[in-house]
Amino acid sequence: MAVNAAPSGEAPAGRLAGRWVPWLVIGLWVVLAAVMVPLSGKLSSVTTDSAVDTLPASAESTKVAVLEDSLPGGEDNTFVFVYHRAGGMTDADRATVERHYNALAKRYPPKVTTAPGGDGEGEGPPTSPSTDGKAMMFTLEVSTTYGGPEAIVGPLREAAKDRPAGLELEVTGPAAVDGDLDAVFDGIDVQVFLTTVVVVTLLLILTYRSPVLWLIPLVAVGAAALTAMATVYLLVKGFGIVVNDQNSALLTILVFGVGTDYALLLIARYRETLHHHENVRVAMVHALRGAAPAIVASAATVIAGLLCLLVADLNSTSGLGPIGAAGILCALIAMLTLFPAVLVVLGRRIFWPAIPRFSTAVAEKPGLWGRLGTAISRRRWAATLGSLGILGVLAIGLAGNTGALREQDQFLSAPESVTGFTVLHQHFPELGGQPMTIFTRPAYQERVLDIVKRTPGVAEAIPGQTSGGWADISVFPTDAPDTVAEYDTIKRVRTAVHAVNGAEAIVGGPSAENLDTEVTTSRDEKLVIPLVLTVVLIVLGLLLRAIVAPLVLMATVIVSFAAAFGGSVFVFDTILGFKGVDYSVPLLAFLFLVALGVDYNIFLASRAREETVRLGTRDGMLKALSATGGVITSAGLVLAATFAVLASLPLVMLIEVGFLVAFGVLLDALLVRSVLVPALTLLIGRRIWWPSRLSRPVEPPAGQRPLTDDEEPALQR
């Protein structure tokens, strides 16, 4: 239907928005879905949490793990059975322990089955009593031919249930911890996906108060998520990218959070253009022209930030770069093609009951954000100092417990494998840590063994088998697993054995892997964080065509991150009682909060620059705040809620990432972007756009004094 009342430019837009275009886009997405949806279900089959895959090949513990796997029986899973009775072990208890050991050793024939104290060749006693007479233990090596840790630990615990009343048992050890950890991640992708869908659905319903409209962005984002999962699967198969369960969950969160944000921004602009264009296709073309540049700039910033992770040494961290970038790209394409196409096909009625009517005279209401802007303009210093004061108080929380979180403290509710280590340390204090594995050349085994036994922090060292030109030694530290003291012992052992020329000794094991992961992450932080800041700053400079504005925006994001981190540490330490912060949290949170936090500043600043050309710096910023305030706040709430989904999972690391990013996004959307950035812009004035032409003052009429920013009329450039 022709629209005679349409503004200038309607005809060209109409030619771009032919009737067949939306249907063609939808048809192409249907074909794409037919190909990609089956592949998306295969992503879980290529995820891995193995330290060998996660750590760089240069890490010493990785070399040990690779060598161990290449030797006969090297892939065996190590379980430790700890029996204990408060009143002391009885004869019946000891007989039960021996019976259990014999039955399990027969059921799972091991390469080496010995307790510490044996000689590693099966000549020592298979079970060991504690010096206090209240506990007994034995170690069982189970071949991977019987399955992975998660598949084995349950049957082992079930097989040892037959025991006298009062005799307690914990099945622990490295493999038991891995099994319990695998159980936490079992089905996590489906749980995160379904929970995220429910959260986003509720928020969209509350936002639009429409019985149907909420479904459209949900369908489009769902299509983007499935396409992203399939794309990541293809990247793994084609390029060997490492995807762990953590990154798989983050992929879902990113796509749903960012995709829904893009939907909110586009719908807001589309609703506005529907008042000016009767033809919905033409209205959508104009909406895309207005919203797409900011959305594309936002996506480009996040993608650029994520790709900086490629320089990281930790494979799981570097893998998150292309994984996250693929997710953002799929979300961008879906929300700029499939989403608008479906909206156009369904027409205005999709907004029922609040259907936007065609009218060239739409009155603008000042609204909450307009009043907030006026208040900030009147009290610029108060708004600036007040915002910085709040952020500064929150940042004080960084003085809390920011120590590294132990692997045993990762569980929200301690499983048997974790409590087992506590019991083991109580009754066998000389065997407090997880065993280290040392590989050395056979000719140097005795010399290395002697040096290790004399190293402070080592409880016992047991020579193992010789195979494939290597001899292995099992070393038991005295300190609890993943503690600073145990890590210091590992470092001392490495220094000692490396000094033996010709031995080619290397030290690994579960705790050594955790130490190497922590060291590698710390090194990655020093490399990735400055690179992310530089890349995002360059993107902002190109977008805003200025230097001062990008520097100001980056400074506010960094301050916001410090405040979010400090406030979160206070919550983790004081309220939730967590034992530390996982080593991966600071880098992940920084990346997401800088990239995503800058997003909202991009939406605000790009609109402010657009309006400054017409209205001047002061009125341009106030107009931008009024126009974008509602939709950006809604987008922030949605993104925060999607990351908060991670806090529903029973793993401390994911809770910490989810809470910190959600809190940081809310802080950025509600305080930094809404108050601090406008206040700073008004204080700095037109110099915020230096060195662009917008930073130059308007020439006053002859004989008059120069005009201030507030007095400047519309700039005529």
TrEMBL record:
<keyword id="KW-0472">Membrane</keyword>
<feature type="transmembrane region" description="Helical">
    <location>
        <begin position="291"/>
        <end position="312"/>
    </location>
</feature>
<dbReference type="Pfam" id="PF03176">
    <property type="entry name" value="MMPL"/>
</dbReference>
<feature type="domain" description="SSD">
    <location>
        <begin position="574"/>
        <end position="682"/>
    </location>
</feature>
<feature type="transmembrane region" description="Helical">
    <location>
        <begin position="583"/>
        <end position="603"/>
    </location>
</feature>
<feature type="transmembrane region" description="Helical">
    <location>
        <begin position="215"/>
        <end position="236"/>
    </location>
</feature>
<keyword id="KW-1003">Cell membrane</keyword>
<protein>
    <submittedName>
        <fullName>MMPL family transporter</fullName>
    </submittedName>
</protein>
<keyword id="KW-0812">Transmembrane</keyword>
<feature type="transmembrane region" description="Helical">
    <location>
        <begin position="381"/>
        <end position="400"/>
    </location>
</feature>
<feature type="transmembrane region" description="Helical">
    <location>
        <begin position="248"/>
        <end position="270"/>
    </location>
</feature>
<feature type="transmembrane region" description="Helical">
    <location>
        <begin position="551"/>
        <end position="571"/>
    </location>
</feature>
<feature type="region of interest" description="Disordered">
    <location>
        <begin position="108"/>
        <end position="133"/>
    </location>
</feature>
<feature type="transmembrane region" description="Helical">
    <location>
        <begin position="324"/>
        <end position="347"/>
    </location>
</feature>
<comment type="similarity">
    <text>Belongs to the resistance-nodulation-cell division (RND) (TC 2.A.6) family. MmpL subfamily.</text>
</comment>
<feature type="transmembrane region" description="Helical">
    <location>
        <begin position="659"/>
        <end position="684"/>
    </location>
</feature>
<feature type="transmembrane region" description="Helical">
    <location>
        <begin position="527"/>
        <end position="544"/>
    </location>
</feature>
<keyword id="KW-1133">Transmembrane helix</keyword>
<feature type="transmembrane region" description="Helical">
    <location>
        <begin position="190"/>
        <end position="208"/>
    </location>
</feature>
<dbReference type="InterPro" id="IPR050545">
    <property type="entry name" value="Mycobact_MmpL"/>
</dbReference>
<feature type="transmembrane region" description="Helical">
    <location>
        <begin position="624"/>
        <end position="647"/>
    </location>
</feature>
<dbReference type="InterPro" id="IPR000731">
    <property type="entry name" value="SSD"/>
</dbReference>
<feature type="domain" description="SSD">
    <location>
        <begin position="226"/>
        <end position="345"/>
    </location>
</feature>
<dbReference type="InterPro" id="IPR004869">
    <property type="entry name" value="MMPL_dom"/>
</dbReference>
<feature type="transmembrane region" description="Helical">
    <location>
        <begin position="20"/>
        <end position="39"/>
    </location>
</feature>
